[in-house]
Amino acid sequence: MSHDQAFWLPFTANRAFWKSPRVITGARGHYYTTDDGRQLLDGFSGLWTCGLGHCHPKIVAAVQEQVATLDYAMGFQVTNDKAIALAREVAALAPAGMGKVFFTNSGSESADTALKIALAYHRARGEGQRTRLIGRERGYHGVNFGGLSVGGIPGNRKVFSATLLPGVDHLRHTYSAADMAFSKGQPAWGAQLADDLERLCALHDASNIAAVIVEPVAGSTGILVPPIGYLQRLREICDRHGILLIFDEVITAFGRVGAPFAAARFGVTPDIITTAKGLTNGVVPMGAVIVRDGVYDALMQGPEHVVELFHGYTYSGHPLAAAAGLATLAAYCEEDSFARARAVEPIFEEMIHSLREEAKVVDIRNVGLMGGIELAPRPGAVGARGFEVFLKCFEAGVVIRNGGDVLQFSPFLDSTPDELGRIFDTVRQALRTVT
Ligand SMILES: Cc1ncc(COP(=O)(O)O)c(C=O)c1O
């Protein structure tokens, strides 16, 4: 049997894929090259990853130099210079008081790491009964068991339902089509949805709750922008009850919402921030969990020779990833990427909302350079219409993404109006030809 199709693709309809494979062989700047020699405009910055563009020369050079200097160094009880330097840079960018950085290899690992740190923190403070974790419906925190358990995407949970972590509950999600459809930026309605946390505090008793984890802007479920005041209210309730607040910023960190972190954009500082993706511009897999100083300090007790947190990965702080991260953060600064993204945002907003009158469009949502166009599902075939629009755009030379029937957009931080115009014109044509 031939092994030509040995690769089992993640989050992919594999049988459909192999009937007409979509294979990328190169990339530069804002374009991909395919195996049949076509150039595609990347309207998704990789997979929310490559805000600076592909094959950024300074990141490429940094990784090339690093691989020839230090390929790998033991990461337990020993470390490497680049990991130390990157942690310092990440902490400098983080909200004040969040000065400790734990490295992972992905967003999923960042989510599970954050949850474990929260549990360990309470136990170290003598509140070991605080074991309950609160996520949110429609949330996405990766695919490992912790993140999956606090996540709220039914399709991801279904098959694993009986094996998810016990002691987890979920806030209701923040979407109400009737109250917020076609909002531009943050919806005015919905701050009171945060009060759902008070309901869970009453139900479980707040003294049993360790942490609440939310995406400041829910990405994978189809771009749910937090109502004005919602995150502030979550913060207040967490403070009132001694609950840690975790922002999963795997998508929103590093410029995607026109700021280093969504925490900065929305003016709410959590206790823990999870990141990945944009940390290295997607060039080498890496995540980072950024922790409030007091959380770290609480764990620094007992005899000094004893490991304080029994957690870590062989590749935590990998020198290649850290070199990519250092070059990435330097490029964000040199190119003023976060401010540029903020400057592009109104153009992006206007263009995405220009599709409002298209048949089949039931909502459009956006903040920063994140956008979603929700289509009415085709009766009896939920997700088919979204997938077909994705395929038609791909054929027409533009890469977007569909999460079911929500078309998703994540353009580069330095996108030009012409590029954005091409992306949305292509989508418009595709929408006019799908049934
Ligand atoms: C908010 C959020 N958390 C976690 C993850 C998981 O990241 P990874 O796929 O790197 O494990 C993602 C991925 O898209 C994400 O959007």
Automatic annotation (TrEMBL):
Pfam family, any one: Aminotran_3
Entry superkingdom: Bacteria
GO molecular function: adenosylmethionine-8-amino-7-oxononanoate transaminase activity; pyridoxal phosphate binding
Alphabetically ordered keywords of this record: Aminotransferase, Pyridoxal phosphate, Pyruvate, Transferase
Needed cofactors: pyridoxal 5'-phosphate
The UniProt record lists the keyword Transport: no
GO BP: biotin biosynthetic process
Family the UniProt entry places it in: Belongs to the class-III pyridoxal-phosphate-dependent aminotransferase family.
Record's protein name: Beta-alanine--pyruvate transaminase
Species per Swiss-Prot/TrEMBL record: Aromatoleum tolulyticum
